[in-house]
Amino acid sequence: MINVGIVGATGYAGAELVRLLAGHPEVTLSVLTSRQYAGQPFEAIYPSMKGQINLDCEAYDAAGLCDRADVIFMALPHKLPMAFVPELVAKGKKVIDLSADFRFSDPAAYESAYQPHTAKDLLSRSVYGLCEVFGDQIKTADLIGNPGCYATCILLPLYPLVKAGMIDVSTLIADAKSGASGAGRSLSLVTHICEITESFKPYKVGGHRHKPEMDEILTRAGAGTVDLTFIPHLIPMSRGMEATIYAGLRKDVTAADIAACLSESYGKCPFIRLYDHGLPVDTANVRGTNFCDIGFVLEKTKGRLVLMSVIDNLVKGASGQAVQNMNLMYGFEETAGLSAISFPV
Ligand SMILES: NC(=O)c1ccc[n+]([C@@H]2O[C@H](COP(=O)([O-])OP(=O)(O)OC[C@H]3O[C@@H](n4cnc5c(N)ncnc54)[C@H](OP(=O)(O)O)[C@@H]3O)[C@@H](O)[C@H]2O)c1
After folding, report:
1. Do residue 273 and residue 141 come from a single domain?
2. Ligand 1 pocket test: which of 76, 152, 214 has the largest number of ligand atoms within 8 Å of its C-beta?
3. CB burial class (10 A; 0-12, 13-18, 19+) of residue 202?
4. Whole-model pTM?
């Protein structure tokens, strides 16, 4: 058994970590931090976990956290983890950061989208936690930059096809939609019920922070420099994410070639479910789960591939993938704590 601490445990991603880890056979939850709720029982903040989580929230204290946790999940807004993580790593702790602070290998790319990086020396040490792609590096890592939700949903279908040289990367367009929990639990006008009900809108058009993250990883796939066209949308759901991705083909490939490439890459991956050519995916089928469902349509006469991908932004897009990273780092069953399937209706 390992002891686990969650920093920012009462945010949406933090609470999802608590939910998942409460059912993990190898884990004891030992520290849950929160500024606003320090001293209060966690179950009082999230009554859905009443009787399941016997811990009080506490203020962040690095020494106490390190004494009582082997692995630490950081579920804070970006900018804060890079202030806290250097001390935790120096004390020999494994850290899985859900923010963007350790996702980039190029500090300039991070700084182009966020703010000056104050722990640049750790970027060469951190591993991008897209489990199905970088699993071998994750197994030996002590610091993980857990991918963004949009990045997970878009990179998983694209990466193997770009790597195989099937796609003309200059043509890539990703049209993606997220439920409102992607913006976190803090109150804001944007996610006010009156603003999102009966509404479906693009936002941060041409300037979303996940774009440079995706560009960096897709460029790593080796088919040329990627400058993705990415348009995110807000949909009136609490959780769930869909990406429809349009890609010009570089080779004269068939639907069977696309299916074979995805299947060779992901056939043994427990959380990727591949759909046959032409079958649509649905966020409802992955709700509350760590699955990423991937479908595709090949428009042969136009030389265009359309990929469709769905995840739960809080699970495979955040906390589920973070737990999957922990499982790989510790040699646990990859699916430990993550065996939930969605509701049939
Ligand atoms: N939501 C998603 O779908 C999603 C997906 C992928 C990645 N992520 C990443 O996961 C991290 C957490 O996201 P979230 O959606 O869980 O956000 P959230 O609901 O806003 O939670 C963040 C938590 O951090 C704590 N916190 C501590 N210091 C803070 C400060 N100075 N300012 C604001 N909050 C502070 C807050 O709790 P206290 O105020 O009580 O301390 C808050 O509950 C972010 O980096 C986000 O980018 C989220």
Report:
1. no
2. 76
3. middle
4. 0.97
